[in-house]
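User: Hello, beginner here. Can you help me understand these amino acid letters and fold codes? It all follows right here:
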Amino acid sequence: INMEGYSITLDGVDYPCWGFAVILLNWAALKEKAGIDEMFKKEGLEYRLTRTDIKTDPDTGLPYESVATIAESTNSEKVLGPKDSPQNSVSVDLDTTNNIWQMRVGYPDGFAAPWLKGLTALVVILSVAISLLLMTILVAKKDMKVLLYKMMPPMVVKKLRRGETVVQKYDLATIFFSDIVGFTKMSSEMSPLDV
């Protein structure tokens, strides 16, 4: 309903009144008063606020979506990409009375920490180093086991691993198998003839 004779003056411009309630928003003035650009710039963020309207095509009569940018930072295109691609950003849908607004915010370098690539390289290098050390230990252990089995009979090696003393007596000679660490203690308790 056109309310003739009534108008609203906003920023020096007269707007005619239509209906019983009129809301006119000057987005540039609102954006400046809110300090949204400075707030996002202080945090190192880029942003874009869009509105999606459902309109009817006058030629076909079919509905279609129209996206309008309400506010955005100066470098939002570089960070957020064309048509709000999700690289380096996150979005929140704001449900309003007659359409959907979307706020998309992102960092120029993305959400990954700058030291993440260096840390990943360090983890790979450390895992390779630890694997090589473990392989070296296992190979050395296997080599010692092979050497031990070449020097002594398998039955003697098994008894020595259990901590048993192995003494085999023959008529002309006695063969004594022992580990080197325990040999000095054991030989000090034996008579010279037994050694």
